[in-house]
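can u pls check wat happens w/ magnesium ion
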Amino acid sequence: MSEQQDKDQRHKERMARKKEIVDQRIAAAQEERGVLILLKGNGKGKSSSAFGTMARAIGHGHKCGVIQFIKGRLQTGEFLFFKDHPQVEFHVMGHGFTWETQDRNQDIEAAKQAWEVAKRMLADDSYRMLVFDEMSYMFKYGYLDVNEVAEVISQRPLMQNVMISGRTMPEELEAIADTISKILDEKHAFRQGVKAQAGIEF
Ligand code: ATP
Ligand code: MG
């Protein structure tokens, strides 16, 4: 056997072993239910990951609900793209840009209204996927009670998927999450002086 053939053969055997292990894992994961996914960390890609996954769900015909808990100054591409989609109910809550608002009571009122909408969706099994974008700030500022939110999310319909984004996640949500992804910030164009641009940042 030539050196190349020997290498090919070893590669084939390694791949066969790998496939066996993967097949065993696939066979073991048989539970069918919705999951709670948390997208956290300081790197860029949390909201865009949530909306990318939502596009997947839409492709499969699933009805989706979105609540953006923080309203930016500019309309986002995801809002403009999904707002009229027949399978999507899209809410942008909050008053103005949170870091610029001075009115705490107004922010609390907006958070409570958003939570009422969220609770309605979390009780309705026709929504197969819910995205609560930037919800974690509501806990950080004490606008929503994390224990109540965790309790309601735990009681949601069996097949409903929920994705929550935000830089930091409270322990109470991490405890009940199925999947947690932390996006690290290694580099960001903003620090090199690149202005936020449509289609990338918003
Ligand atoms: P994206 O919406 O692009 O997926 P994100 O949801 O992970 O970003 P957020 O914390 O919600 O990030 O911040 C929203 C905005 O701030 C986006 O415009 C994003 O590009 C920008 N941003 C995210 N991370 C950083 C960072 N490390 N430095 C500077 N700007 C950032
Ligand atoms: Mg975001």
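The beta strands are 36-40, 64-68, 88-92, 129-133, 161-165, 179-182.
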